[in-house]
Amino acid sequence: MVQDLIQLCKERGPKVYIQTHNFPDPDAIGSAYGLQKLLERYGIQPILCYAGRIDKLSTSRMLEEFDIQIFSYDEIKHDMKDTDPIICVDSQKNGGNIQDFVGDEIACVDHHPTFTEEKYLYSDIRIAGACASLIAQYYRDLEITPTENVASALLYALKMDTMQFSRGVTDLDIAALRFVFPFHNKEKITRLEHNTMAFRDLKAYGAAIENIQVYERFGYTVVPFACPDGLIATLADFILSLDEVEVVVVISVREDGLKFSVRSEIPQVHAGYLIRDALSGLGNAGGHASMAGGFVPQSMVEPMGAYYEAEIRERFMDILEKMGYLKA
Q1: Under 8 Å CB-to-CB from 52, ≥6 apart: which residues?
Q2: pLDDT by residue (tens digit) across 250-260?
Q3: Would 85 disulfide with which of 12, 112, 251, 273, CB 3.0-4.6 Å?
């Protein structure tokens, strides 16, 4: 299968862009980097890119540790042409969390469910705990030994997106771990796993704890100021760790709108479907059964008035009632 992607890049390249979702996390970075280094072996010149911000401490440190170069859209858009090939990694075109770049999205490698069908010349979309598992399989299928940095980046991506192999793990993830583990650098992984929180994050934790509301076993909280995407996801994981909570919604209030992170640890509630239905007609959303995210632009928040938070909370609770999770 991966041979088809390599041939496609040779035909459309040699320069190709590998685009992650707008706020790349360790899995997006590790997967894109692993694919970049693989394609380079075949004379292809991949350029890693994204829109938005790299605002997660673990991701910034990952770039430094492995000397990964990734460019924001503002840095490269003047050089891009309509015909330039783009590979979407850890994301899908029109998925709600990826900006439409100038260029032609010829391929997609992702581990998320598909909510908006798109046609690609090459598509590898399989449900797994981490997109890095798909990239690791490419190396395995081609019988290529990954470099120490690639193996370490893929392993770190695997650990982070599966929450240390405790969330959404599939046989593909276990096979990927078994493959990359002998080649990784233990010291680099240890450095990355230490000191993953910045001092400024404490304020967000305090706000999330102060504002949390629990309905039966549904947790809901609003952080009344802007937080990085990665931190919002971390807050959702933190609240989900409470014994009293099985499903959680965390909202960060930003100048341009509301950013959401949703978690579910029970099969009855699919996090991706929950946020998709709750935000229908308001914004973009989607994700896995256990983790999902979304965004409502300010233009859609303002018509709801001063009590928009209550209206959005009711939207989530209505969907949970329809799922049979909350009592009507």
Answers
A1: 21, 22, 23, 24, 99, 229
A2: 999 999 999 99
A3: 12
Order the strands of the 218-223 sheet from edge to edge.
213-215, 218-223, 247-254, 257-264, 291-297, 284-287
pLDDT for 24-61, tens place per residue?
A: 999 999 999 999 999 999 999 999 999 988 877 778 88
In this prediction, residues 98-115 reach a mean pLDDT of 92
Is the pLDDT score of 195 beyond 70?
A: no
Q: Is the peptide bond before 14 cis (omega within 30 degrees of 0)?
A: yes
CB 29 within 8 A of CB 169: no
The span from the CA of 228 to the CA of 231, in Å, is: 5
DSSP H helical ranges for the chain: 2-12, 26-40, 57-66, 73-76, 132-141, 148-161, 171-180, 186-193, 201-211, 229-240, 271-278, 298-301, 308-322
Plot region of 260 (φ>0 → left; ψ -120 to 50 → alpha; else → beta): beta
- Residue 112's Cβ-side half-sphere holds a number of Cα atoms within 13 Å equal to 30
Tell me if residue 29 falls in helix, strand or coil. helix
Report in angstroms the alpha-carbon separations of 85 from 95, 103, 121, 126, 155: 18, 6, 11, 22, 28
DSSP 216-270: TTEEEEEESS---HHHHHHHHHHHHTSTT-SEEEEEEEETTEEEEEEEE-STTS-
State whether residue 4 is helix, strand or coil. Answer: helix
Residue 155 is which amino acid? L
Which one-letter amino acid corresponds to residue 28? Answer: A
Domains and CATH numbers, the chain: 2-193 (3.90.1640.10), 201-322 (3.10.310.30)
Give me the amino acid identity at 302: E
**What's the CA gap between 92 and 97, in Å, rounded?**
8
Given phi > 0 = left and psi -120 to 50 = alpha, else beta, which region is 318?
alpha
d(CA 21, CA 240): 24
What is the C-alpha to C-alpha distance for residues 122 and 140, in angstroms, rounded to an integer?
19
| Residue pair 254/226 in contact by the 8 Å Cβ criterion | yes
- Axis crossing angle, helix 2-12 with helix 26-40, rounded to the nearest 10: 70
